[in-house]
Amino acid sequence: MTGAPMGLGGTRLIGTGSATPDGILTNADLEKILDTSDEWIQQRTGIKQRRVVDQTKGESTVSICCDALEDAIKNTGVDPDDIDLIICATCTQQMSCPSVACRAAERIGATRAAAFDLAAACSGFVYALNTADSLIRLGRYKTIAVIGGDAMSTVMDYNDRSVSILFGDAAGAAILTQDENPERGSIKQIMGADGRGWECLYLPRKAIDVPECDKDNPIELGMLRMNGREVFKFAVKKFQHVIEQTLSEAGIGIDDVAQLICHQSNLRIIESAREKLGIEKDRVYVNIDRVGNSSAGSIGLCLDELNQAGRIKEGDLILLAAFGGGMTWASSLWRV
Ligand code: UT7
User: Exposure string (b/e) for 72-108, b if CB count within 10 Å is 16 or more?
Assistant: First the structure.
């Protein structure tokens, strides 16, 4: 933690990083193990392939999150000693103690930083970014590293075609610091949750975790369960609503937004929001075809890909929007 709080300035995005494992799982690979087809998957999700960790090589949520932060450190040149706090959003940490954030701190040699994990499923990266922005604005911390990453393939039941076709592994990271301009950083944000929908998307570790509605179903402990249809209906409604509410509270129109960065849940969900908002394709980033749905990794990865491609410029307004298990949702309107 820094000394005396300075407070009430803004937040500057210093830079970003990301990591995707080398392993590729294509629709053709899934056709060999599941009763599914490339055509069905592409039509229903927009996905052609996903990236997956190789656990036999020691790859995991920890390794990709550490790689993403290391990449951000390399890209920004930030001294790890200057990082005050590391927040890692994930729902696939193999150990609950220590946190993935502590492992990432060890990897980059950030011995001064506080570190914790944050659980908000696919909304996690935006939750973490909003939390970091608020802590910086309060003046409690000067420089914060945010990571979002999930190795979803480690919690996939590859006998369950309704879930396993969707998810892949990735991590993204962003480094933020205090800025004197309060109009910089997250100028409007929404975070919400409705716990009544938790049974639609859950990751049971023990028998006691299985809800009543699934008591008679064959459940694989340690594997993600999802009622895709219910999540889809929720997502289409919520996504649209959260984007419109953010814009309206900020008093701006969608035309002012340089890039809309949506959680890469399913191309149909992203397209539905895009069409209703009347925004053209080149301002709504999509990489789900190449990487699948990487939960908390997805928005950080999109942000970094756009950033590395020079498509995010100083002064731009970007809007991040996500939803996920919990159920949770979040948005962040950023002035870069
Ligand atoms: O990021 C976290 C939040 N999660 C999400 O955003 C996921 C939201 N949900 C979805 O993306 C979609 O619900 C899925 C992609 C998971 C499923 O697509 P869907 O269009 O909702 O399919 P469905 O579950 O309504 O199933 C339609 C049909 C069913 O057959 P019948 O009953 O119509 O004969 C399924 O059995 O498709 C069948 N089906 C499949 N067929 C081939 C389900 N999964 C598959 C499959 N391959 N993989």
Answer: bbebbebebeebbbbbbbbbbbeeeeebbbbbbbebb
Q: Is the pLDDT of residue 314 over 80?
A: yes
User: Between 66 and 217, where is the model more confident?
Assistant: 66
For ligand 1, whether the C-beta of 61 sits within 6 Å is no
Q: Quote the percentage of the chain above a pLDDT of 70.
A: 98
Mind listing the pLDDT tens digit for each residue in 28-40? Answer: 999 999 999 999 9
Whether ligand 1 lies within 6 angstroms of the CB of 266 is answered as yes
Range of the domain at 53: 1-336
Number of domains in the chain: 1
Closest ligand 1 atom, residue 30 Cα: 48
pTM of the model: 0.96
CATH of the domain at 216: 3.40.47.10
Look up 75 and say whether it is catalytic.
no
